[in-house]
Design brief:
Blueprint: E1 8-15, E2 37-40, E3 48-53, E4 56-65, E5 75-77, H1 79-85, E6 90-97
Parallel strand pairs: 1-5, 2-4
Antiparallel strand pairs: 1-6, 2-5, 3-4, 3-6
């Protein structure tokens, strides 16, 4: 039996603003904020990430590009993801790619 290593990365995070509500995501979905999704500047889409903030965890599916480079953030969380984490809107989160 082999050892499986999963890399966790601390990322600066933010939440989608309300101006993104009802926009079409990179995967063709309509963003409502009701699902546990996130936006990253990496490929591929539909990967699942475990996001941790202050002892709370949520699985987020990567379905969009973002956040904008000028924000200096690395991940945008949907409204539902942020609420599940009790995330205030901006800060550091730990992100781990879920093993397939």
């Amino acid at each position: 039996m082999g050892i499986v290593l999963r890399l966790s990365i601390l990322m600066l995070a933010s939440t989608y603003g309300t101006e993104h509500h009802q926009n079409i995501t990179a995967t063709g979905e309509i963003y409502t904020g009701d699902e546990h999704t996130c936006a990253l500047r990496s490929k591929p889409h539909n990967e699942v990430y475990l996001v941790e903030y202050r002892g709370r965890f949520v699985y987020c599916r990567h379905n969009d590009w973002g956040p904008a480079r000028w924000t200096n953030k690395s991940i945008d969380l949907s409204t539902a993801s942020a609420q599940a984490l009790h995330f205030p809107g901006s800060g550091r989160v730990k992100v781990t790619k879920k093993r397939n």
